[in-house]
């Protein structure tokens, strides 16, 4: 393996021993320089004996002790002010993103749209961003490839990437991709022409959650609450099932009861399924064959699962890909499956959990009735008058007091959609769609970022070669109560009501 140690000079700074592996692409070497200097790879000029290093070819003489000169700055060079005003229709993509305050896109490094879409959807969760900001690297004692592939390295790299995305219009995620490839070599597979192969976005989603699950600690509330979960992911994304296993061939055999944890629900697609809700229910009641202790042979069992804990962020995966042995691909089911913007998980829950959800659901009903009454009273008023007379509101906690990171109503609102366009999971194109505010959404097509509305989101249900919803992220639906009613409720409780962490976070939910 041609590995060398070279010297790099950048301005007044010198780096006497930088490792170079010429088996890797020059962009990975530039990623190392980015880690040392903070100069983005696309802003770098690397010279050796007057020759500028290309991004895709080692066209410079590299040997041990060679001196390389790095040119480039961390910050953008100030541009000359443009005196002539520009209209939106005359702006390019970058100017449009700045004018509309659009978030940062991610450059495609060769069939890496699956990773880009996954990261954009994960970034939509405000609590996850906050948790990553607090993360401190604890993998300094792990060296070599093992260190770069560790959960700590992946978590740290995601933290740094999200930070970069707050400061730039477009970010090239070279370092994150490098660590992802080391941790999961199957994502680094290349085709005949040497380019990276397309990968399954849901597989990437699951693997990243497992990494974060090992390193991000559970969130502690402002009050002295008992932390019930081992990790942030279990706390905010994790739910649990109560499972009953009944043998259909032996009525006298006792029902086997157990618990299972989940990080996402599955929506199975069959000929009779037309809506997401029915696809989820199909997964929660299924038949399987296993050994019966009473019959002494394999028998048919009915497995019934009901949700006993709802997380604040509910992820639903549409099972759109089926493996075809002859073709050796995961073929896609293109069927149109409708999904709601607002989702009610109440019917999927155990009776015990339904009872716990009822008080907050009653508050939602009261708020809806009050809003309807206000609209009826003001039916002769203009929209502007109604808006001006609208009372100030305060967001209610969406978590149970003793379980931070849960959902206390069963009501959800769609926050992000990860879609696939194509005929198999190993080809085609992935895109992320994230709610910005209200009915305003952002389409993240790699480094092309554009605004869309709710109607565009509802068209992602499938049925053809357009983008099909593959992974949905539902966040807690917020209940806003007029300040006067909130004050009355507090007085009725004897003045003992205190603000909780989830009440504060509700006002800034991940759609900000």
Description:
It is built from 15 helices and 23 strands. It is of the alpha+beta class. The strands form six sheets. Strands 10, 13, 16, 18, 19, 20, 21 and 22 form an eight-stranded mixed beta sheet that branches. The protein has a five-stranded mixed beta sheet with strand order 2-1-5-3-4, covered by helices on one side. Strands 9-8-12-11 form a four-stranded antiparallel beta sheet. A hairpin with a 2-residue loop joins strand 20 (440-445) and strand 21 (448-453).
Note the total helix count. 15
Structural class computed from helices and strand pairing? alpha+beta
Strand content: 25-35%
Give the termini separation.
48 Å
- Record field, number of beta strands: 23
Radius of gyration: 26 Å
Give start-end ranges of low-pLDDT stretches. Answer: 492-508
What is the molecular shape? globular
List the helices and strands and how they pair.
Layout: E1 3-10, E2 13-21, H1 26-37, E3 45-48, E4 51-52, E5 67-71, H2 93-99, E6 105-106, H3 113-123, H4 126-133, H5 144-148, H6 151-165, E7 170-171, H7 174-183, H8 201-215, H9 232-236, E8 239-247, E9 256-262, E10 265-267, H10 276-284, E11 285-292, E12 297-309, E13 314-318, E14 321-324, E15 329-332, E16 342-344, H11 351-377, H12 383-389, E17 393-395, E18 411-421, E19 429-437, E20 440-445, E21 448-453, H13 454-458, E22 468-476, E23 480-482, H14 483-492, H15 501-506
Parallel strand pairs: 1-5, 6-7, 10-13
Antiparallel strand pairs: 1-2, 3-4, 3-5, 8-9, 8-12, 11-12, 13-22, 14-15, 16-18, 17-23, 18-19, 18-22, 19-20, 20-21
Write out key terms for the chains shown.
single chain, alpha+beta, eight-stranded mixed β-sheet, five-stranded mixed β-sheet, 15 helices
């Amino acid at each position: 393996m041609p590995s060398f140690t070279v010297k790099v000079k950048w301005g007044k700074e010198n780096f006497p021993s930088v490792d170079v592996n010429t088996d890797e692409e020059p962009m990975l070497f530039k990623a190392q320089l980015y880690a040392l200097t903070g100069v983005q790879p696309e802003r770098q000029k690397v010279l050796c004996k007057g020759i500028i290093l290309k991004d895709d070819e080692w066209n410079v003489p590299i040997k041990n002790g060679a001196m390389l000169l790095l040119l480039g700055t961390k910050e953008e060079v100030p541009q000359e002010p443009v005196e002539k005003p520009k209209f939106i229709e005359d702006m390019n993509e970058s100017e449009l993103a700045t004018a509309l305050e659009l978030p940062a896109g991610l450059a495609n490094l060769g069939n890496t749209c699956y990773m880009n879409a996954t990261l954009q959807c994960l970034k939509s969760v405000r609590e996850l961003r906050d948790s990553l900001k607090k993360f401190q690297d604890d993998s300094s004692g792990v060296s070599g490839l093992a260190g770069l592939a560790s959960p700590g390295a992946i978590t740290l790299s995601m933290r740094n990437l999200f930070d970069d995305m707050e400061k730039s219009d477009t970010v090239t995620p070279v370092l994150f991709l490098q660590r992802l490839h080391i941790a999961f070599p199957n994502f680094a597979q290349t085709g005949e022409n040497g380019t990276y192969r397309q990968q399954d976005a849901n597989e990437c989603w699951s693997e990243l959650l497992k990494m974060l699950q090992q390193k991000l600690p559970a969130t502690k509330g402002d009050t002295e609450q008992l932390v019930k979960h081992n990790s942030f992911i279990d706390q905010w994304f994790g739910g649990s099932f109560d499972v009953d296993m009944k043998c259909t061939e032996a009525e006298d055999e006792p029902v086997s009861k157990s618990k299972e944890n989940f990080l996402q629900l599955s929506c199975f697609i069959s000929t009779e399924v037309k809506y997401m809700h029915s696809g989820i229910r199909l997964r929660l009641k299924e038949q399987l064959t296993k050994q019966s202790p009473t019959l002494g042979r394999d028998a048919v069992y009915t497995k019934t699962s009901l949700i006993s804990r709802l997380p604040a962020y509910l992820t639903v995966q549409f099972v759109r890909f089926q493996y075809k042995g002859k073709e050796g691909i995961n073929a896609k089911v293109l069927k149109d499956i409708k999904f709601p913007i607002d989702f009610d998980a109440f019917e999927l829950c155990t009776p015990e959990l339904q009872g716990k959800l009822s008080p907050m659901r009653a508050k939602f009903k009261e708020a809806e009735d009050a809003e309807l009454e206000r609209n009826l009273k003001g039916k002769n008023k203009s929209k502007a008058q109604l808006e001006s007379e609208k009372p100030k509101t305060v967001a209610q906690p969406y978590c149970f007091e003793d379980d931070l990171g849960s959902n206390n109503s069963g009501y959800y609102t769609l926050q992000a959609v990860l879609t696939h366009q194509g005929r198999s999971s190993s080809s085609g194109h992935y895109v992320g769609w994230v709610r910005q505010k209200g009915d305003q959404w952002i389409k993240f097509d790699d480094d092309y970022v554009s605004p869309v509305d709710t109607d565009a989101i509802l068209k992602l249900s499938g049925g053809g070669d357009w983008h099909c919803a593959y992974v949905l992220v539902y966040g807690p639906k917020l209940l806003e109560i007029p300040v006067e009613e909130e004050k009355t409720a507090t007085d009725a409780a004897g003045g003992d009501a205190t603000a909780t962490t989830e009440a504060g976070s509700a006002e800034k939910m991940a759609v900000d």
